[in-house]
Amino acid sequence: MSMPAPWPYPRWIAHRGAGKLAPENTLAAFRLGAQHGYRMFECDVKLSHDGVPFLLHDTTLARTTNAARAWGAQAQPTAGAHAWGALAQLDAGAWHSRAFAGEPLPTLAAIAAYCLANGHLLNIEIKPTPGLEETTGRVVAEHAARLWQGQAVPPLLSSFSPQALEGARATAPHLPRALLLDTLWDGWRETAQALGCVAIVCNHALWDAALIAQVNALGMRTLSYTVNDEWAAQRLIALGTDGIITDRVDLFAPA
Prior knowledge:
By secondary structure, the protein is α/β, with parallel strands linked by helices. The protein has helices at 27-35, 67-71, 84-87, 108-118, 133-147, 162-171, 188-194, 209-217, 230-239, and strands spanning 12-15, 40-47, 53-55, 121-126, 156-159, 177-181, 199-203, 221-225, 243-246.
């Protein structure tokens, strides 16, 4: 049995910046999450067609930008089919509320600059365009290694895609990695070990004392998504888990 290494990250992590209080995965969301006292954030990162890592959760632009209205028939089915110069012109805030109209999609570099300037920590979920898993892992890890070079606490790289994590491991093996799980699929333990993961990030309902013991015995930490109810948070704290990713930055004080 191996014991988990010292853990430099706080328990409370703001989902996509500020959960649902601001347009997800934007700088405005990060600023609002910080106003609520959060000092670690989770975000989703994928690649533009020309290889720029930027923040977006969905495969398409339809839900969280004005791409359909701005581009009409020129809007491609996947966000990653567009060059960054075009993506940078989109409105990623108006869909949420009028107060955030005009908020742009941020690059990973912009979010890194904000976090580093304010002493914030980051969990980067590698969210590849389908078919670009390994490439996305490599490019995101390369950028993260450069942007956080010399920092005491690097970003935590996570993904549901083992291929993306393998790309990250091959490119920047010193950056910590975490495997995301929505189910306990066959071989997840062996996969996490082979990838050198430091943590497992589960759908919070999957955790129980036995699973936590299994993961800790592998020398890995236990994190949960997306925890928005007080009863669920208290259950995870009582179980002794290490990290809670939440939308409810207005409900949970991250002290």
